[in-house]
Every structure is written in structure tokens, then in C-alpha cells.
Amino acid sequence: MERAVSQMKVVVVATNSSTRFGGEAILPWHYFRLLRKRGIPAWLVAHERTQRELTAILPDEVEQMRFVPDLFAQRVMHRMSGPLPKRVTDITLGWAIGICTSWMQRKVVRELVVQHGIDVVHEPIPVSPRQPSLMYGVGAPVVIGPMNGGMNYPPAFAAAQGRVERSLMWTGRFAADRLNSLMPGKRKAAVLLVANERTRRALPSGLAGEVVEMTENGVDLNLFRPAETAGIQPRSPRPKFAFVGRLIEWKGVDLLLETTARALRRHDLELHIVGDGAIRPQLESLAAELALGEHVKFHGFVPQDQCAKLLAGFDALVLPSLYECGGAVVLEAMALGLPVIATKWGGPADYLDENSGLLIEPGGRESFIEGMAGAMVELAQSPALRRKLGKAGRSRVLEEFDWERKIDRILEIYARAARSPSDASRLSA
Fold first, then answer.
1. Contact 413, 209 (CB under 8 A)
2. How many angstroms separate the CA atoms of 85 and 168, rounded?
3. DSSP 57
4. Which of 145, 243, 317, 320 pairs with 333 at a CA distance of 20 to 30 A?
5. Are 44 and 17 in contact (CB under 8 A)?
6. Tell me, what CATH number does 325's domain have?
7. Are residue 319 and residue 415 in the same domain, yes or no?
8. Over residues 8-24, mean pLDDT
9. How far, in Å, CA of 283 to CA of 141, rounded?
10. CB environment 41-52: b (16+ within 10 A), e (fewer)
11. Number of structural domains, the chain?
């Protein structure tokens, strides 16, 4: 007899799970906390680097969490990765570190399956469709994703990716099928979740399970509320634009600083940069060279709950990323009722349309900067347009990207996975 969805036992496993790391690391945490909120027997298997953080957030759920430590070899690789560009690290040493973590987590997952009769194992991250998975032969059907990837830089900005980085990316993609043969978690999974057709095309060959489309990001609507309902002070007369994200090369913050300098020739405004990263010193130097002065403020890292309140006090979000597969911050800004200016490429182009934001074609450096500057000036000059786009964006989030609705959907997918005739239910080495 099939077990009712509300009684299903689930393990959520992720190499990283955190509300502070940014990017994809928050996704497994949302699945775990919302499953537990609904009273569903769920366990989280993550890395011990976030143990203190996560157990402090949900102290009553400590018994439902398991954490694995770093091996000595992983600590050595962490130190070696320091000087490398992030995307190079991600596909070399970072990948190797994650595989070590996943291997240790696989043992923990297998133990949980035996001890508690787990129905489904869910591995939400990494979101890369090509990255191999070790979650196979764990004794229960496996759901992987939602994944989002298969991207390249916009053609006009291909040179922004260094020659070494391009070579490593090409080599990694070429080797993906072989690696997925050696570590066949994705090939053996009961269900693979993909955010879009681009990601589906990037999956490894030889899949045994079902492929289902589902957006990877969502919004916590209890946290991201419009200013008038969140008790935020009224906005200042000078329009305030925000960038939120890691300060790394492909986020395009250097382009945004040049954009801001150009927009200031036509209208008074402010740019607030929320986030931290390796290139922050270079960006601060560029802001000084452009004489942006009081018109630009670097806030550094801000925890998500505080970031929601901070972002609610701004007038618009600007995301000039050149390599953004997802872009959760776009959805968060939309939930706050803020208009969004973003690159018409990757994730933001999936989330926004002409009714909810301004998408700028990445046709070349000069045209891109001019297009972004024009959009900033247009929004700065028109509070009515800001309200119109913001209202449409919030409506879209309410309909399509509420985390509670995502949990409804994932429970349906768990039930489908549990019924699958996959060989994933057998324990194997």
C-alpha cells in the first residue's frame, strides 16, 4: 500500500546548506524547513561548516539534521583554491572537494534509509546539470534538482571569459558523460528536475528516470514583503537602485558602476551594492575613479532577513550579470513590488517579461551600458512606471514562485518518484 504524502519520509542532502552563503546553498534549507513546518518526517544531511548556523535557526529540529566534516585532503584543496578565479575553482578543486563531501554524505543517507525507512532522497544542489552525483544505490528512489545550467556567456561578451577558463570549461563539459558513467547518480535517479529546456539539453546521456520541468528558485513571501506591509520607512526623493549578489567577475558590477556614472549625467540617483566578494577592492577603486562619491554605497554582506528589509526600502533592482543561470534576487525584488532591470540572458530572462521589468540586450559593452543607463534614468524619472512594473512583478511571483506552492509541487514529485520502478531502491556499493 502506498504511503500518504503527509506520511512520506524524506532525506534532503546537499554539499552546502546555508542562509548565509548566497546562491544555491539556501535551496536545500528551504525544502527541509518547509517540509518540517508541514509535519513531514524529513532529515537534512549537510556539511558541518553550517551546523552552528542551521541548528541555531531551528533548534527544535536538531535531531533531524546530520553534518559531515572536512577530510584533511579537502582542507588542503581549500587552501590551494584561494588564488584561482571562482569559476575555475568550481570546475576543478571545488568540484573535487564537493565529491569528497558527497561521498561521506552518501554513507549517512544509506544509514538513514535503513534506520527510518526513507521513501525518497532529494538532492537539490549542485544545480549544474552536468555535475555527477553520488546519490545512487542508497536504498530509496532519488530526486535530483531542480537543476539550471547549460549556459555560456553572451556572444558579445565571450572575451570576458579568459582563455584558461574557457579551456577548462570546454574540457569539463567534454568529460561530463564519462564522469557521469563513473558516478551515475543522475543516470539512475528516479526523477530529474530541470528549470528549462536549455538545462534539459545539458543533462548526461543514458538517463533511466523521468525528467520534469520545475523552476529551481522560489520566494519566501513571509520574508519578502512590500515596504508598506513590512513597516519600512518611506523612500527618499532621490531614487535608490540596488544590486544584490556576490562581487565576482561575471556579475557585471564593473559595468554597473560605469552605467551609474552615465545615468547620473541625466538624473540624480543612488546605487547601493549589497554583497561581498573577491573583487570588492577593485570595484571600490573603480567607483572612486568614476567620482561616484556619495552616489554609490557598498554595504558588504547582509543576512537574508536583514537584506529583505533593506531591499524593500529601495526603488528598483539592477542585475547586470552576464552568466546568471537563475537569479533568485530577481524574484525577491519582484515579491517586494520593485521593478527590475536585468540582462536579457539566462535566468532573469526566464523570470521577467515586458510587463514586470526592463531587460537589456547584451549586444556589446557600449550598447549594454547605454541600455542599462537609459533604463535607470527611465525608472528614476517615472514613479508611475516603477509602481506599474513592481505591481505586475509581485503578481507574477504570487502566481508562480511562492515557496509554499513549490513544496506542494515537490510533494507530488516525491510521490511519483516513490512509485517509480527504478533500481535506485536497492542498496549497492
1. no
2. 12
3. H
4. 145
5. yes
6. 3.40.50.2000
7. no
8. 90
9. 46
10. bbbbbbbebbbe
11. 2
How many other β-carbons are positioned within 10 Å of the β-carbon of residue 229? 10
Residue 11 makes CB contacts below 8 A (sequence gap 6+) with: 42, 43, 44, 45, 109, 112, 113, 118, 120, 121, 122, 140
Please state at what angle helix 253-263 crosses helix 365-381, rounded to 10 degrees: 50
Pull the grid cell for residue 227.
Answer: 515596504
What does each C-alpha distance from 299 to 3, 260, 271, 380 come to in angstroms?
Answer: 49, 17, 11, 21
- 135 lies in the same domain as 280: no
Shared domain check, 210 and 256: no
Q: What is the CA radius of gyration of the chain?
A: 22
What pLDDT, in 10s, does the model give residues 264-311? 999 999 999 999 998 999 999 999 999 999 999 999 999 888 999 999
Per-residue pLDDT tens over the stretch 339-394: 999 999 988 998 998 888 999 999 999 999 999 999 999 999 999 999 999 999 99
**Are the C-beta atoms of residues 358 and 340 closer than 8 Å to each other?**
yes
CA distances from 201 to 192, 351, 384 (A): 12, 20, 41
3-state helix, strand, coil in the chain (%, to 5): 50, 15, 35
Q: In sequence order, what DSSP letters do the residues of 184-240 get, joined into one string? A: BHHHH-SEEEESSHHHHHTSPS---SEEEE--S--B-TTTS--HHHHTPPPPPSS-E
Tell me the pLDDT tens digit for each residue of 60-84.
Answer: 999 999 999 987 776 776 777 676 6
Is residue 424 predicted with pLDDT exceeding 90? no
CA–CA gap between residue 337 and residue 224 (Å, rounded) = 9
3-state secondary structure of 276: coil
DSSP string of 95-121? HHHHHHHHHHHHHHHHHHHHHHT-SEE
Cα angle vertex 294, ends 293, 296, to 5°?
80
168 and 244 assigned to the same domain: no
Query: Are 181 and 292 within one domain?
Result: no
**533548534: which residue's cell?**
59
Q: Helix 72-81 to helix 93-116 angle, to the nearest 10 degrees?
A: 150
Q: 257 pLDDT band (50/70/90 cuts)?
A: very high
Cell 516513490 -> residue: 418
What is the layout of strands, in order, in the sheet containing 191-194? 65-68, 42-47, 10-13, 120-123, 142-147, 191-194, 210-213
Q: Do 390 and 409 lie in a common domain?
A: no
* pTM metric for this prediction: 0.86
Q: Give the residue numbers spanning the domain of 331.
A: 227-400
Measuring CA to CA, which residue among 213, 219, 215 is closest to residue 403?
Answer: 219
Q: Is 376 in contact with 269 (CB distance < 8 Å)?
A: yes
